[in-house]
Design brief:
Elements: E1 2-3, E2 8-9, H1 17-27, E3 31-34, H2 41-46, H3 48-68, E4 76-82, H4 105-124, E5 128-133, E6 136-137, H5 146-158, E7 165-167, E8 173-174, E9 177-178, H6 179-191, E10 198-200, E11 206-207, H7 208-218, E12 223-226, E13 233-236, E14 242-246, H8 264-270, H9 279-299
Parallel strand pairs: 3-4, 4-5, 5-10, 6-9, 7-14
Antiparallel strand pairs: 1-2, 8-11, 12-13, 13-14
Helix pairs in contact: 1-3, 3-4, 5-7, 5-9, 7-9
The protein binds guanosine-5'-diphosphate-alpha-D-mannose (GDD).
C-alpha cells in the first residue's frame, strides 16, 4: 500500500481474485472504474492467453468480489469496453445497436467483459455499465500507441534527435478524442439514474496519415507524400529528407480500419459534450508536450 495525501494505492492484480477481494473488503468503494487490461491490440496477438485472463476473467473477478462482499446494491461499476468490439465493422458510424465483430484476441476478451457486465446487471440488478470508448489519447498515452509514437517522433525529429518515423497501416481510420474529456463521461455514467451502456466518441474520423501530417505541422515541418501501400513515404518539403516510411513489422494479423462512433446517446442522456477538445487541439496538446520532452532530452536533463 502506498499513501499519498489524497490517494492510497494498493497492490493487486486482475488475475488474482484474492487480491481483489482483499482490496475491496478494505476500501468498500461506492464506485469502481475498471480500466485494467493488457490494452495494446498488437501485443494481444503475442500474449493472447494472458490478455484473455485479465481483460475477460478480470472483469468477472471484480463483479463476483462485489457480490461476495455484499456490495452489489451499494457499489456502482464502470467497465472500460471498447470500440475494438466493432472490429471488422458491420456499419459506419457505430452506435450502441451496431453488431460486434471483434478482430483481435484483445477484442474477443473485451467482448466477454462487455457481456458479463450486462449479465450481472440483468441477473442481479447490479449498477454496472459499459462505456464503449473509442480511442482516447493524451500527453500521458503509452509510447507504443500510434498517436503518442507519432507526437514523440515528430518532436524528436524536429530537434534532430531522430532521423525518421516508421509506421504500420497509415490508412487505418480512428475516431480520436481527448482522454480527459472521456474520463468525465465515465463519471457521468455512474451518476446516472439507471445503469446503461454508452458509446463515447467524437463522431469525427481521421486516418493515421492525417494525424502524422498534423503532428509534424505543429512542429513546423511540412511534408509531401509519395508512393502508396508499403512504399508510401513522407518527405520534408524544404530539405527533401525522408521523414516517414512504412515498416510491415507494425502490421497486425487482422487490423481494425474504420472506426467512427456516434455519441448521440451520451449527448442526449448524459449531457456530455464530445467536442470539448477538438481533434486539432488534441494533436496540438500532445505535440507541444512531446516537443518539450525532446528539448529537455537534447539539453541532457532528465525527462
Ligand atoms: N500502435 C501502432 N503503432 N499502431 C499503428 C502503427 C504503429 O506504428 N502504425 C499504424 N498503426 C495503426 C494500427 O494498425 C491501428 O489500426 C491504429 O494505428 C491505432 O492503433 P493504436 O494506437 O495501437 O490503438 P488501437 O486502435 O489499436 O487500440 C486503442 O484504442 C482502443 C479503443 O478503440 C487501445 O487503447 C485499446 O486498448 C482501446 O480499446
Amino acid at each position: 500500500m502506498i499513501r499519498d495525501h489524497q490517494v492510497i494505492l494498493y497492490y493487486g492484480d486482475l488475475s488474482d481474485s484474492s487480491s481483489i477481494v482483499r482490496i475491496l473488503a478494505e476500501c468498500r468503494p461506492d464506485e469502481i472504474y475498471n480500466l485494467g487490461a493488457q490494452s495494446h491490440v498488437a501485443i494481444s496477438f503475442e500474449a493472447p492467453e494472458y490478455c484473455g485472463d485479465v481483460a475477460a476473467l478480470g472483469v468477472l473477478r471484480i463483479l463476483e468480489a462485489v457480490r461476495m462482499l455484499g456490495m452489489d446494491k451499494t457499489c456502482r461499476i464502470y467497465q472500460a469496453s471498447t470500440s475494438e468490439l466493432y472490429g471488422r465493422v458491420q456499419e459506419v458510424p457505430q452506435d450502441e445497436e451496431t453488431p460486434f465483430h471483434p478482430y483481435s484476441p484483445y477484442a474477443v476478451a473485451k467482448q466477454y467483459g462487455f457481456w458479463i457486465v450486462k449479465e450481472y446487471r440483468e441477473a442481479y440488478g447490479m449498477f454496472c455499465c459499459n462505456g464503449i470508448l473509442f480511442n482516447h489519447e493524451s500527453e500521458r498515452r503509452g509510447e507504443n500507441f500510434v498517436t503518442r509514437k507519432i507526437t514523440l517522433a515528430a518532436g524528436r525529429i524536429a530537434e534532430g534527435l531522430q532521423t525518421h518515423l516508421e509506421l504500420g497501416n497509415m490508412d487505418a481510420k480512428r475516431d480520436w478524442g481527448y482522454a480527459k474529456d472521456y474520463v468525465e463521461c465515465m463519471w457521468l455514467m455512474l451518476q446516472n439514474d439507471r445503469p446503461q451502456d454508452f458509446v463515447i466518441a467524437t463522431g469525427v474520423q481521421h486516418t493515421v496519415q492525417d494525424f502524422t501530417e498534423r503532428a509534424f505541422n505543429v512542429n513546423g515541418i511540412q511534408r509531401v507524400w509519395k508512393g502508396s501501400g508499403i512504399h508510401k513515404k513522407g518527405y520534408d518539403t524544404s530539405s527533401g529528407r525522408m521523414l516517414v516510411c512504412v515498416n510491415p513489422q507494425w502490421f497486425r494479423p487482422t487490423d481494425v480500419v474504420n472506426l467512427l462512433g456516434n455519441p448521440s446517446k451520451a449527448k442526449r442522456e448524459l449531457g456530455w459534450n464530445p467536442m470539448k477538445t477538438s481533434y486539432e487541439e488534441l494533436i496540438r496538446i500532445m505535440a507541444v508536450h512531446d516537443r518539450e520532452l525532446a528539448k529537455r532530452e537534447k539539453a541532457g536533463s532528465s525527462i
